[in-house]
Amino acid sequence: MNELPIIDVAGIKGASGARLAEIARDIGAASRGPGFFYIVNHGFTDADMADTFAWSRKFFALPLEEKAPLAITKTSCNRGYVHMKTEALDPGQNIDNKEAMNIGLQLEADDPELLAGAPSRALNMWPRLEGFRPAMLEYFDRMHRLGCDIHRAVAVDLGLDDDYFEPVFDKPMATVRLLHYPAGPRSDQFGAGAHTDYGNLTLLAVDEIGGLQVRRRGGGWIDAPPVKGAFICNIGDCLMRWTNGVYASTPHRVVTPEGGDRYSIAFFLDPNPDAIVDVIDSCVTPDNPKCYAPISASAYLAQRFAETYGAYEKK
Fold it and tell me: 11, 26, 64, 256: which has the fewest C-beta neighbours closer than 10 Å?
């Protein structure tokens, strides 16, 4: 049985009053509890997702000589192709058995922040696959809007104005990450090792092949099976830091799929690079004193990526 809550977010776009409060209550309870939840009635149709997954499969089906020039090692800003078995989300375990493609906020070559060398700003790298770029950018934009809507509910749950997070998500360090996990026998080789996500919020689309597992608060792992028409959402370390640990960032992993290759599409919503992540006052109490120092979002993300992508230097 699925142990994670399913939250109906119908009408979240533009929601206010009682409806926004209802969504905020449900998301807040899940964020304080398992740190993982499903959302349904989010505005994406089955046809939308089928089309996006089709593009993902087309990309990963390209020959390696067309993907290799897009390698993430060519940039310092989390853009591009992650070759099979080069990433270690759990550095103490084996290298992850997966490949990925990361697409960030689309910037043009004359963008002032890009020209100034601002942290976490870089150009996307695109394959020679006609139609792929506009499809991915449309998906990015729609997921960005959905993630911002969810943050309105988060703000309400935390006793803040619903637009509290709006200024720090207008040019976010967000990433669409296409993922491909090849099928194989279950072993100590994981598709993705146990880890927590680094940013504020993850919105994950999955195909019919399961594999995601979430750690219970009391220990042990539970499956997070595919739910038709749902995104799987989870709280990241940055939002846990912002909320002084009131919201939970939960370890999770992907076991090697046995029933066929697994494809998933993650959207990681991280704040603007210059956002200062400082504990929200409403999350500080005598029983829960402030336990995190302020840090810029870009500095925090950089230190987390260094831990993961150190695997490249070892290879």
Answer: 64
Any domain includes 95 = yes
Residue 94 located in a structural domain: yes
Specify the residue for token string 């309400």: 156
| Boundaries of domain holding 106 | 6-314
- pLDDT band with cut points at 50, 70 and 90 for residue 87: confident
Could you tell me the CA-to-CA distances from 185 to 71, 101, 213, 223, 228 in Å, in that order? 28, 24, 17, 18, 26
Residues 248 and 239 sit within 8 Å (Cβ to Cβ) = no
Q: What is the dihedral of CA 282, 120, 214, 151, to 10 degrees?
A: 40
* Helix H or strand E segment including 303: helix 297-314
Domain tally, the chain? 1
H or E element, residue 197:
none
Q: Which CATH number covers residue 263?
A: 2.60.120.330
Label residue 308 by pLDDT band (50, 70, 90).
low
